[in-house]
Amino acid sequence: MDVLLITRIAALIGLIVAVLGLALRWGETMSRPAPVDCAPVRGVPARGVFYAFTLGMAPWTKESTRLHVGAYLRGVGLHVGIFAGLAATAASPYWAAMPPALRGGVALVLAISALLGVAGSVMRLREPHLRALSTADDHVSILLVTLFLAAGALALWQPRFAPLLYLTAGVMLAYIPLGKTRHCMYFFLARGSFGRFIGRRGVLPPATPLVARRIR
Amino acid sequence: MSESVAMPTRPAAMPEAVKAALEVLERQLNQPLQTALEVCARCGLCAEACHYYRAEPSLEHVPAFRGEALRRVYRREHDFLSRLFPWWTRARRLDEQTLAQMAEMAFSQCTLCRRCTFNCPLGVDTPLMMRAIRAMATAAGHAPEILVMLADAAIEQGRDPEMYREGFLENIRGLEQELRKITGDPDARIPVEEQGAKVLYVPLAGAHSILPPAIIFHQARESWTLSLFQAANYGAFLGDVQRAKAIAKRIVDEAKRLGVQEIVLAECGHAYSVYRWEAPNWFGSDYAFRVRSIVEVMAEYIAGGRITLDPSANLKAITYHDSCNLARGAGLIEEPRLVLRAAAQEIREMTPNREQGFCCGGGGGLVALLEYEERRLRAGKPKADQIRETGARVVVAACENCRLQIGELNTRYALGIEVSSLADLVVRAMRLPGAVKQEAQDEPVERVPVPA
What we know:
The complex is a heterodimer. Chain A is mainly alpha-helical. Helix content of chain A is 70%, strand content 0%. Chain B is mainly alpha-helical.
């Protein structure tokens, strides 16, 4: 067996571990009681959920992201890169058919995201509170993601690096259900729960269009 | 699930307190709590959202750090990798010392204001985790004694209200005289536990939460009656659903017995949260009445023309403090502003305000915990700064604990303000014949006596 095939199998195993592991975690969480809300609603729960996943994620709607716009955009950029990287990995058998400009563009996105990953690691190590908050799991998680993104950029630029991409993808995927990166699944539950809360109780979205309100 | 299955093997001699705390954690571990425990990416963006951190930017005041206290215990119990290699995620087995530290943190360094959740890109519900720790601490005997005592006293009062009824009625008769003087109506009444009334008004401890609403109900010609009990629910601060439910049951039973259509609560943030949002889940179909805050009722009276106000009666510049439980926790954001606009001449908003407003530092039962007074007042500095920046002379808050805290912030930070309830402001703007006395209510509110 050649290296390419072995690493492709590794990536596939990583994917299977990720899917099964997340499915197990999902099942475990869903087996726990869901809170019952009997109180009459004040607002519209669905509007709250919609807001939580759309405008509520915009950097200008939260004070925290207005104060740390760089850190927030770094995080957004990293996550965009991860999804682009996963899509690019899945499409790797067809790279040869891709227009060179598109391939180069995706490689650039992944390279920038990898740099954002490095920046995230540096921030974690340099900023005292962030360093104190971070566990080995945090450092390893961002390292695995960064390596995957860098390998993706390299492989799109030079196909001989494809085995490196598959290997890093396999390890990163297999680690998802074990480590901190599993927040990719809980994100949807957390934002959904927040959205239902603000929607039910009529806290957000605001009754008047956001553009009409002064930033507060 | 049996304990032997749910819990990993532990030393045989686990202290009872720790065992009790872990059992509570297991019981509380529902979908939202597990999500909150799993989702945090430890990005630290929540830091400045917390008023404790704004006042003193230290690690222990970062909400994510507080959440980690419970997460470490949770991981040690529930996470595969953390059980094999605890150092990997800093998982730790719960012991009595850790439990005591967690209890102190949850009761003294978090007011459950939800500002961190609203500012978290992921929506991590840190207050939910803090409530879980409070519940664990209460079960393990680590909760502040005064909160337990107040909760148990309220439950006891519900068991035997007769012991307390006569004294209460006598006080109300005194207030009724005052009501008649102020309204100029010799027939004005403060009905107590009257069958067939439409509204059951539930006050707080002290005449200040009875007389102004009584005046407003009288002027609006409302069919109402006063509850024998108080709206405060210290069981909620303990995170103890059983106690909170027992305290709420007194009022639920009273409302059913009187056949009222609606419970109207005094200006109180946590009571609104308990009776409007939590209690319906505890009592199910027995909870067959509407629950509103007096703030909503006043707004309705004003909008419907049932009471008329003269804003020139309140000439001083006013700013409004959004109680976390009422604004972020319940969406009561525009109603108090509608009342203010009708009752006062000049309103100056704090920045930020509404669902982004800072907690005053008195929430989560902190105002009752004298042992944490210094910490609470230091944490109130961002609110004091906000108030000062408005240049307002009067701060209105629709929550008793907020008013008490802002009153103390006024002294600590020399703000030179008056603190008022919304109802006091409304009564002043009614220009009633005997309302000269109301000027006295310009004085900052004093700490009300704790109910027996």
